[in-house]
Amino acid sequence: MANMPVSEMRLPPHLAHLLAARRLDTAKDVLSLPEVELMAILDAGLPTARAAVALVSEAACPPCQTALALLEERVRLGGGGRLATTLCGLDEALGGGIPMGKLTEVVGPSGIGKTQFCLKLALLAALPEYYGGLDGRVVYIDTEFKFSSRRMIEIGQKSFPQIFRQEGLAQKMAGRILVIRPTTLADFTKSLEEMKVTLLQHDVKLLIVDSMAALMSLENEKVTAGFSQHPLRWTLSFLKSIAEFSRIPVVVTNQVRSQSNDDGYHFSFEVDKKDGNKCAEKFDSHLVAALGIQWAHAITVRLVFESHSGHRFIKVAKSPMSPAVAFPFVVESSGITLLSDESIDVTGPEITSIRCQGQNVLSR
Q: pTM for this one?
């Protein structure tokens, strides 16, 4: 609960105003300071500083829950609170679908199907509950201008023809999806700051950022004016806060970057010296997820979209509900479709690799 905003803690008004005036916006901002430093920042005595620490600690501390209570909540929410992807094998591996209250990353090379996957998720979140949807609104942050309402409607018509034959339903679904297209990180952060009110007041059930890496690359990793830390850290913290306190799925797409052999990253398919250059020619580059280690540790679920041996795969590379497994898929007029609901086990360094070509080591 370190990211819990002070403004949501229902502190005494005088203390809330004092913390806001000193730009102590989250529980972490307050609790990470020594008492002496907090006294100096607040320009107050020791009793006030200790009272602030005690009240913020009490508000931010998560309540204790038993394993039985967690199990009962999972049953009540139907699978622990998840957005089903309608890809049966993938949903089973994820324990029912994309988890609510968590960050889910979709990473892969350009053109592999990440946006197609996000469009289907947006549609599913907007569908009425009696059709398997969440019956809510969707905030879709489109940083690469790839969102296509026409394509989304096509996916709906092909996936749920009995639903979209109803007059006006397609327009109703499209009207539930709010598309935001920030061109700078400053626009993006402003949208996020304003979004919490929108999430609470307009029954938003899904937040998609497509893509985070593209937005960060525009800033060239420069610190934005007004932020005391790297902009990626602030954005990551805020996205986790939105997921946790709004209890909605947050799906973020990520790009890939090349990783040379000199960087010390080795894949299981790398050839032995005795094989010479014959096999090495099969691989032009090694790909890894962009945004770095800090981002990778913060996400709860990582879905890797990769292509090799003439097939595309969705790989569950990170999930508390599943071992690393992969599913072959194709992109059709109805969106992403699995070729098989039977998972393929993924082991060793193959879990973290992202491939675009070469031999099919998943089928070994």
A: 0.72
